[in-house]
From TrEMBL:
Pfam families tied to this protein: Peptidase_M16 (PF00675)
Sequence ranges assigned to domain Peptidase M16 N-terminal in this UniProt record: 9-111
Source taxon at top rank: Eukaryota
InterPro entries: Metalloenz_LuxS/M16 (IPR011249), MPP/UQCRC_Complex (IPR050361), Pept_M16_N (IPR011765)
Species this chain originates from: Timema podura (Walking stick)
SUPFAM superfamilies membership: LuxS/MPP-like metallohydrolase
Full protein name: Peptidase M16 N-terminal domain-containing protein
Length: 179
């Protein structure tokens, strides 16, 4: 759900403002997620990259999660969940069988939780996990000094966040239908 809500209204800009301003400078912002990483990627032109970095910082560290915007994304979430290929589901179930908790948690929102996410839950998740010790800033074709200056301006909680460990159990997991 955090990936789906990326780019919505934040403390400094509306959803429309983020989209319009990034389009005006010829930049694109994408968000990907897996078991261990939520990645925000900004691609843009060198002469307007500093403007794009402002919106990247806002989208990645200043989320607001307005209740009506979260609700408006339910059709998109349902659509994306319906389009998960069986091969991806099998790998997700493989992790569930091997680890049960932690790394065994599914990457995808269970159907029973669709529509149950609220602003407070999402905000708590981001505040507790998006911390300085769990974050990295990387750049390709960007001046190192500019990248360091950008990283120092990010508004992240300090600390390591909650500790999680993945214990391997092995075993099997049976699911009737994965299509």
């Amino acid at each position: 759900m955090v990936r789906v809500t990326a780019g919505l209204t934040n403390k400094n800009s509306s959803y429309f403002g983020v989209t319009r301003n990034l389009q005006q400078i010829g930049a694109s912002l994408t968000t990907t997620a897996d078991r261990e990483v939520v990645s925000y990627t900004l691609e843009g032109l060198p002469n307007t990259f500093d403007i794009g970095l402002k919106y990247l910082a806002d989208v990645s560290t200043k989320q607001v999660f307005k209740p009506w915007e979260v609700l408006d994304l339910l059709p998109r979430l349902k659509y994306e969940l319906a389009g998960i290929p069986p091969q991806v589901r099998v790998l997700d179930l493989l992790n569930k069988a091997a680890y049960r908790t932690g790394l065994g948690n599914t990457l995808f929102c269970p159907k029973r939780l669709v529509g149950k996410h609220n602003s407070e839950t999402l905000q708590h998740y981001v505040n507790s996990l998006f911390t300085t010790n769990r974050s990295a800033v990387a750049g390709v074709g960007v001046d190192h000094g500019e990248l360091v200056a950008f990283a120092q301006t990010l508004d992240l909680e300090s600390g390591a966040g909650p500790s999680t460990s993945g214990q391997y159990y092995g075993g099997e997991y049976q699911k009737g239908e994965i299509l």
